[in-house]
Amino acid sequence: MSSLTAGQKQLILVGAGVLLLIISFFLIFQRNMDKASTLEQETAKLNKEIDRLTALQVQVNEMQVDAPGQQSVVNEFTYKFPCRITEESELYNVYRMKVKSGITISSIAPGEHQTFIMNGKYIPFDGRNYEGVSIPVVDQAAEPNSVEQDPQSRVPMNEMVGKTVGYDLQISGTQKQIFKAINWVADNDSPMSITNLSFSFDSSTGLLSGTMRVYFHALNGNGVTYEDPVDVDDFDIGTSSIFGALKK
């Protein structure tokens, strides 16, 4: 085999250099470029997350300034409720409604105690239709939790348990007296509500007669100390009505 000329050797060296450059591009440079592109995408995601967390921190700082005032609002709301509801307090409020309005109550039928707030979620209790509201499933017959067992304790609002009970009342009175009874419930310091209003006019007496359901509400775990109604001993028990004569 004849020896290569200087030109041929130079051509081979140039070709080998080009081949080495191509191999380096695909094995080293291109791989690094792919890695750089991946790192750039990850960096963009991290920068986006940093921007989000920075914005959240600004909101947290603003909320920390408002937190004491918001807590005061929460406390003002939760302290309006008694920590539990008892038959003494329920009958006392029915009696006060009768005294203040002048209506006559001929029968009282207490209902079952129900849970209307659990784990920070509202649970419909009065049969109304709440479209678009996700209703939690609560076993009303479940064993009481620690908050329900100690309703006078103070827990965070999302751990408080709302309790309610409805009393069906058979009543009669003038239109003004019935309106006064409804307004007394609406304006009561202790949260109460009315549903199932149904009345008819009695031409023989000139009075309206019918039924209303009064709900009494409580928040277990709101830290309010329960106190028995102060005027229970003043109930007048008679034969003409459930409470007897009125005491203004």
**For the terminal residues, how far apart are their CA atoms?**
134 Å
Please state the overall shape, judged from the principal axes of the Cα atoms: rod-shaped
**CA radius of gyration:** 38 Å
Helix and strand composition category:
alpha+beta
Main pleated-sheet profile: 6 strands, antiparallel
* Total beta-strand segments: 6
Succession of helices and strands: HHEEEHEHEE
Strand fraction equals 15-25%
Question: What ranges have pLDDT less than 50 throughout 5 or more consecutive residues?
Answer: none
Question: How many helices does DSSP assign?
Answer: 4
Helix residue percentage = 40-55%
If you average the pLDDT, what whole number results? 80
Descriptive overview:
This protein has 248 residues and is an alpha+beta fold. 42% of the residues lie in helices and 21% in strands. It is built from four helices and six strands; from the N terminus they run H-H-E-E-E-H-E-H-E-E. The chain has helices at residues 6-78, 87-101, 146-149, 175-187, and strands at residues 104-110, 114-118, 121-122, 161-173, 192-202, 207-220. Strands 1, 2, 3, 4, 5 and 6 form a six-stranded antiparallel beta sheet that branches. Strand 2 (114-118) and strand 3 form a beta hairpin.
